[in-house]
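Q: Two folds, back to back.
A: First:
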Amino acid sequence: MLQWLGLPGVVLFAALLCDLVIVADASLDGFGPRGVDLLLLPGILSLSACALWGRSQPVVAAWVGAAALVGSTVLIRLTGTLPYTALLPNISFAETVAGLELVFFCVRAAKAGIAFATTSAMVVACLLATAGRDSISSRSELVQALVSGFVLLTATVVVAVQLRKPAAQRVRSELMTLLRRQWPLVGVLAAAVFMDIFISASTGVFALVVLATNAGAVVATVQAIKQPVRSALWLAGVMFVCALGLASMGERIAYVSFGGFPLTQVLAGMIVVVFLVRTAVPRQATWSIGLLSLVVACGAVANTIDRDQDSLRALFVSALLLLGISVATGLYFRARDSERTQAVETAVNEAQTAERMALARELHDVVAHHVTGIVVQAQAAKMLGEKDPRVVVDALGQIEHAGTEALVAMRRLVRSMRGDAPSGSSEFSEQATTDLGADLRKLVEAGNHGVPTEIELDLPADLPQEVARSALRIVQESLTNVGKHASDATLATVAVRASGEELHVRVSDNGTKGAAVLPGGGYGLIGMRERVDLLHGRLAAGPGPDGGWLVEVWLPLDGDETQ
């Protein structure tokens, strides 16, 4: 919901929340007829709805909003309801924010002439509401209203005009980027700012001091996300200036419950402490929190000096409690961040390990198979070349073919490691078999390092790709071991068939030496076992009942079991 509202919607929601609190309290305060202040709500809610509508239909929503503002003014005037003063005289927070957002949306999206006419209509409606809802007591108040309205309108139009430009020509602001990304934090701070403005609205110059220092506190709080220590120093300076201003003007009553500080700055201090504990180095966080605490203590003493000892003690306990809550929250987030970082690192390490193991299996099963053929053919040519030179020519042709295949396989592996696989392909998918039967026959027809091989196939039509690829690699590795280590074998047999819910792979030879005896420590059986384990299958390898070596594998055909 909040993501749908966006930054403008969150600020509007904060203003609307403050209006509801203020109006609800005013309707029960005993001044005037009970509940009459609730008549302010129709105008507030209708203009807020127009602001939300303005994101899709800015011009129409702005004209409807202007009409709603005028209609609300008429209703307030006829019923004698007393409006309250917020940013502008006699206009509530939500109405002010909604009106500015309607102007913003219109100037940003509409043509210049239409935007000017629509903005003028909103200004006229605002002036009617300011003068028509309740009389302005003095000329200075009127001048202040005009100046405030002009400043808000100018700032809104400037920002909207800036956003009319193409994205490449816009002035990028790191602060604005943070504000857009951290809209929940902005919403909380905006609500506090609105409440501070309402509390200090009747204090004259003091209200400007509160507004200026609150703006600095909000900026410091948002920047604390990236630079908590610097933000803490900035916030300490802002709070010191505010406390000094309050003490020099004697304005202590409005914020005596908060130790003499505006609500926004109290909230900002808590948030900055949370970010300090969460992200800063412990030593820097400690002295930064100490500095903030010192400024708060001095400001509280300076602005609550006329209070009794019990009140000061209660204020101290409250401040200590808020500090403890902030530190505890920061520690919680720090622990959660640490756990998340550790989990991510563990996942990355596991993924890297799995990738290395997959690459090792592919390198061993594919490249080593061709290299083994090269070695066997070279040995045969060396042994028989003197007796029959034609053997050398034939062996060189087979060596060339095996070398070409090894080079192609190596290039595929390199592309996989470099991340240059085609878009949409998965790990080693370009090497995956699309027809297991054809690939197995091609493997056998390639000569199997000089050992004659028979093949028996009975494959299901819907064989899962991972099962097919693993079966191909297992047969390939088994035949490679036959060629390398069963030197006296005269026949190898490959049988691959479906057996119930499993694919049964059987590779055997009739040699007298075990094909799995790997001098120097080979990885053939290790790689096969890893492939089988990944698919939750079974592997058996050992001497066959009729001599030679036998490898049998059962791979589940059910996709759920292979997850």
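A: Second:
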Amino acid sequence: MLYIIAYLLFVAGPLLALLPGRRIPSVLAWSSMTTGCVLMGTEGVIAIGGPAAQPLIQLALPIIGPFDFVQTPLGGLLILITASVFAVALPFVARDASAFPQGRRALFLSIVMLTLAAMIGFFSAATIVSFIFCWELAAIAIWGLITFETRQSKPVAAGLLTLALSELGSLAGLVSLLLLASAASTPQLVGIAAAIPHLSPTLILVAGLLAFFGFGMKAGIIPLNVWLPAAHGTAPRSTSPILSGATLNLGLYAFLRIDAPIALHAPYLGLIILSSGALTALIGIIYALVEKDMKRLLAQSSVENMGIATAGIGAGLTFAAYGHPLLGGASMVAGLYHMINHSTFKTLLFLGAGGIDATTGTHNLDELGGLMKRLPALGGFFLVGTFAIAALPPFNGFVSEWLLLESLLRVVEIPDIPVRITFALSGALLALTSGLALTCFIMLSGSALMGLPRSERAAQAHKVPRTVIIPMGMLAVLSLLLGLAATLIIPVLGRLAAPLVGANPTASLVPAFFHPRSSIPLAVQHALNPIGVNVGAAFLPLRSLVVMHLDQTSAPVVYAMSTMLTFVVLILMLGSVWLLARGLRHKRITRSTLWDAGLTRLRPEMTYTATTFAAPVRVVFQGLFHPHIEEDEERQGAFVLTRSHRQVITNISDRLVLKPMISAAFTVANRLARMHKGRVNTYAAYILLAMVLALIMVGGTGR
């Protein structure tokens, strides 16, 4: 019932935007759509705690076949995330939509709601027809969002690239589903998953690879990830939080529905997912470091974070395939946790980028600076987002990345040498990614918020819309809570991971530890006491320590963490520094003029910009970037007035995959075109040859 009411509210929102005026129609449309998101999020929560599958819609369409939808706990999690992202982004969307004329305003909001409706349908799809239909509907709606605001060449080109690669991925995914459905003799996704153990190993491996790289396009997995920075860099500022915080999860969900049951019986598929995710994460953060456009930087960072979540999923499936479902569950929890975290802090950061664009008119980092002083609320919340995405404790990014890196170390339980090597290399790539991510977001926050304003627009920034500030504040608090309440969230994700890997890690490893009122067994307590299991038990609302693996026979702790205690320690440290500073303020302080070396005033152009900060990265990874220099000069007669050099970096996926594919397609097309430009005698020869071959074949059949 909630689904029906929510969808009616989604339809009512754009219709209310057709009313005359600007403010009242926008408020009414926002209220209707946000209420629908709240109802849909409520339905997601109900689904998470509900049974394994609950039918929603069952239709038998002529020719097409069954068109069914079902409610599942995993789908409920994705619906909750999606509805929450849309809910916090809609105030900014409605504000920007109010600047359009009535018709375009309603059309814009209709495309936004179509995106949401298609995604919810995708997370509820039960057959390959409904699965592909909702995927395609979401792809078309995303293309509409990217190209809606302008008809300039760059947004149109980015939208067409997104749509083309999406269709290429859809084709690969559809072939995968048709192969599996034909072999399993059922179009139902549950039936296909149940039949996989009885299918040909070669067939399921091929189908799994097609599904991974086909649907992986939407998650930004290499090699088809070049669309993401182009699309997000040109999309309307109010839709970027939706595109990054919500729509990228479509690809991850497709992995979990299609590839998870396959990887349990094709172990090397899990290794491919793990290594592809780790490589995607590293490449994403390297390219983010050399971006000076804030939106493109955040888009490249989305590639990185999707890679991290994919690596967690791949590691979990590999552990389960090699007979270690508990360790697989721990890795899968890390992957799901990071998916939630990415949606939280990336929505926060894109809202901040949109707010900066709204007040300064630019998102070029080299033209910003000094915004923390002029926009303290936005700057503070934006800084929390950078802490979270850089995986600094006690924020949420730290929890999921720590769980993933620690779970990869447990590959020692698997004796297979190639598996150990793959895990070791993937872990090294992810560790390097974490270090580069910290550098990247120091650069982002420093160049955008700190220092002196490097343009007149940044110097005059003074006001940010409340439709940005309030959602940013909510997401900043949520980023902290998702880090502190790890012992409350991990059991929920463990239950969702259980059907994917065959075991619930929190119920099987240390079951009592994640329940505050339960008593921990004495042997486990003795093992955990030295690392602080009982610290804060009297006043903390949850267990402070997160333990994901423990050998209860000899009682060694394999890995544990505590973001709650880290937070308490940080508060005590910061409080001590504040008290010390207050105490020193009352003492006599001698002030004197420092030697300025002749520099009486620091000018904005003397400060570090994003471009100069990233210079060492450009040098170290020059072989990866493969840059080329574009030279522009202005002449007057024989004299050169100005000459400028610009370094252009091409994405490695574009250079090694996309451009060769396009070149090969043009070559084939040109050769085929020659067949249509020949002489009449040549065409007559073709016809004669075809007739002779047909007669020979008929004659052979007659005998």
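Q: And?
A: The chain is about 70% helix and 5% strand.
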